[in-house]
Specification:
The chain has a domain of about 90 residues. Helix content is about 10%, strand content about 45%. Strands 1, 3, 4, 6, 8, 10, 12 and 14 form an eight-stranded parallel β-sheet that branches. Strands 2-5-7-9-11-13 form a six-stranded parallel β-sheet, with no helix packed on it. The radius of gyration is 20 Å and the shape is globular.
């Protein structure tokens, strides 16, 4: 259905150099920007590198380099990030090097951080613990297993 029609053979002899070249070019690409819009609700684990904007509802773990939780957004689950800005509601444990709670933020849970900024009128109920190395970026995305 989605493949090649019967009369057209598929050329599977792609030179190895072309494949290696495209893989190298892909790894040098800039970090991706992803967004969960206000009308979207996700249940599950979100893992990635790059920037993630959450404006809808997430129920589950969130792992990304930079996470922004917008006004009116909700996250129920643990968050691991290099940099985290919260304007909505979060219920769960936060592990991030830099955390900023905007004035509209409502956080219920513990925050492990290197730097924490809380604007006036932000709500935070939980424990705050400063740590030098809260996360290490390579551990955000699970390592690929090598064949034995």
């Amino acid at each position: 259905m989605f493949g090649n029609s019967k009369g057209n053979p598929v050329d599977t002899n792609i030179p190895a150099q072309e494949v290696k070249h495209s893989a190298i070019a892909h790894s040098a690409a800039p970090e991706a920007n992803s967004s969960i819009s206000s009308g979207l609700s996700i249940i599950g684990k979100i893992v990635g590198q790059g920037k993630l904007g959450i404006f809808g509802h997430v129920e589950g773990e969130v792992h990304a380099s930079t996470v922004q939780i917008g006004d009116g957004a909700q996250v129920e689950g643990d968050i691991v990030a290099e940099e985290l800005t919260i304007g909505g509601r979060v219920k769960g444990t936060i592990h991030a090097n830099r955390v900023k709670l905007n004035s509209t933020a409502v956080v219920e849970g513990d925050i492990y951080h290197r730097s924490l900024a809380i604007e006036e009128n932000a709500q935070f109920e939980g424990m705050s613990r400063r740590q030098e190395d809260v996360i290490s970026m390579p551990s955000i995305v699970p390592a690929k297993r090598t064949p034995a």
